[in-house]
């Protein structure tokens, strides 16, 4: 017999809670039966596995090692994940449409989704568990298969049947768009930043006029005929366009609008399933005026498109890992119009870099009437680091020191306000106080943007400096990490009215 005998006996009796075995962690919420086959997830050391027992198509399709007592021990592989998706639809991602609030929960490590699932249970919001940009994948050394596999297995582990989404986040090129959809991602965030002309805002009126005059006559005629001198009612607000508005918007967003239409027709319309299609115009220097938001949306809907959400570039700053920076009164005035525009066309307003924007969450909830998409990502990494600081202070100290040394390299990827001179030196902080670094804005941003550098760091022999020990710590202390996520992301949802 094998070390899994007691687990299989518990599965036979239906007593998953009583399947504990020394050296084997059991996930009783994963226990399920279908057509004569019982399944349950376990963990041995750092490795999760699925124990299968019984006979039938499901048993035959799962790849694994036969056990002496008649069961099978199956790896949490991509192939086995696809088997689970076929037999248990709740383990596969789905689209949600525009009538429900959604929360993007970027899991950079592949360890956070169980805690995310526990956080959203009983709340009026749906989770987008898989959410990664190509930039994040490059920095973490993961790929989209791994990202989606981790989310699907988390749903299985937690026995979560409520539904979750998978977002190909901030995709810019068609090969990445095609790849994400082929893998089964159910949401696509189209990053139009490289198609938006940020130079226009810095030009004089004369320079804008000259550049606009160089556009084809039919393009100028289109925008002038549709917008020049006209006003549009959106809820209680009026959006109007003068000559300068028309010229600047045509120049700033014209190419991006054509890109949006091309991607929609080529990939969204032709998909064999529902896709939540989000338009991102936020990753730019140009703040999205409400009139610009209206024009972009109107161009899409006038051409027969429908979208899931749009992410404008709001006034103020949505920097990584810290609260909103800016005039909150101005933000609320403009947000109210942006939300009305989204309502007018029927899609959701999307807020990017939404982690930790506690001061404006109630405003977002009020003006979107609770129908929004908010993206988080790096805050989950920071909670992982906080957990490590609490249980493995030596590892945290080494990571912190390395992050300080390499901070300026990370600035090539992220814009933050962090001032390292304001970060308290490590030798002045006791082990017990290390988690408090994650409460300091400058330290948060230091650790936030150096995640890729820390995870990729190697010694002279090519061995991981931090990653292996970091993962081991979090896996061995998974309850602590899950509890930290429930508290932190739970605070987000409380303030968002969910």
The mean pLDDT is 96
First-to-last CA distance: 49 Å
Report the total helices. 19
The shape, in one word, is globular
Question: How much of the sequence is in beta strands?
Answer: 15-25%
Q: What is the C-alpha radius of gyration, as a whole number of Å?
A: 25 Å
Q: Order of strands side by side in the largest beta sheet?
A: 6-7-8-9-12-13-14-15
Strand runs, count: 15
Helix content estimate: 40-55%
Indicate the low-confidence ranges by residue numbers: none
Counting helices, strands and paired strands, the structural category is alpha/beta
Sheet bearing the most strands, described? 8 strands, parallel, barrel
């Amino acid at each position: 017999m094998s070390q899994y005998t007691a687990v299989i006996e518990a599965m036979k009796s239906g007593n998953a809670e009583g399947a504990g075995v020394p050296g084997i962690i059991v996930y009783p919420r994963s226990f399920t039966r279908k057509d004569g086959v019982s399944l349950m997830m376990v963990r041995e050391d750092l490795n999760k596995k699925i124990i299968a027992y019984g006979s039938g198509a499901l048993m035959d399709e799962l790849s694994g090692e036969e056990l002496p007592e008649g069961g099978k021990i199956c790896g949490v592989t991509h192939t086995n994940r696809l088997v689970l998706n076929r037999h248990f639809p709740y383990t596969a991602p789905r689209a949600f449409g525009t009538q429900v609030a959604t929360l993007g929960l970027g899991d950079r490590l592949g360890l956070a989704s169980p805690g995310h699932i526990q956080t959203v249970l009983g709340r009026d919001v749906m989770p987008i568990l898989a959410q990664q940009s190509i930039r994040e994948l490059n920095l973490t050394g993961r790929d989209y298969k791994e990202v989606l596999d981790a989310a699907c297995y988390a749903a299985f582990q937690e026995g979560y049947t409520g539904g979750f989404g998978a977002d190909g986040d901030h995709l810019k090129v068609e090969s990445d768009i095609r790849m994400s959809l082929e893998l089964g991602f159910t949401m696509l965030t189209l990053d139009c930043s490289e198609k938006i002309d940020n130079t226009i805002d810095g030009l004089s009126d004369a320079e804008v006029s000259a550049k606009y005059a160089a556009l084809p006559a039919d393009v100028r005629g289109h925008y002038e005929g549709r917008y020049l001198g006209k006003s549009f009612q959106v809820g209680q607000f009026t959006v109007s366009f003068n000559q300068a508005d028309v010229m600047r918007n045509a120049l700033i967003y014209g190419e991006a609008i054509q890109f949006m239409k091309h991607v929609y027709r080529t990939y969204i319309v032709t998909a064999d399933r529902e896709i939540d299609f989000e338009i991102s115009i936020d990753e730019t220097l140009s703040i999205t005026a409400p009139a610009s938001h209206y024009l972009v949306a109107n161009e899409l809907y006038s051409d027969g498109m429908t979208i899931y959400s749009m992410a404008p570039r709001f006034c103020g700053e949505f920097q990584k890992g810290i609260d909103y920076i800016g005039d909150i009164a101005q933000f609320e005035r403009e947000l109210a119009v942006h939300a009305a525009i989204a309502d007018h066309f029927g899609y959701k307003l999307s807020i990017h870099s939404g982690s930790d924007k506690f001061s404006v969450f109630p405003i977002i909830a009020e003006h979107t009437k609770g129908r929004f998409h908010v993206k988080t990502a790096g805050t989950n990494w920071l909670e992982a680091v906080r957990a490590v600081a609490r249980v493995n202070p030596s590892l945290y100290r080494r990571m912190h020191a390395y992050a300080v040394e390499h901070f300026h390299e990370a600035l090539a990827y992220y814009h933050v306000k962090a001032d390292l001179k304001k970060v308290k030196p490590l030798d002045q902080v006791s082990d017990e106080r290390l988690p408090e670094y994650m409460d300091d804005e400058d330290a948060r941003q230091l650790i936030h943007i150096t995640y890729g550098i820390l995870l990729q760091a190697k010694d002279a022999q090519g061995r991981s400096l931090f990653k292996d020990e970091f993962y081991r710590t979090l896996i061995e202390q998974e309850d602590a990490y899950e509890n930290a996520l429930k508290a932190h992301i739970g605070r987000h949802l409380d303030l968002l009215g969910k």
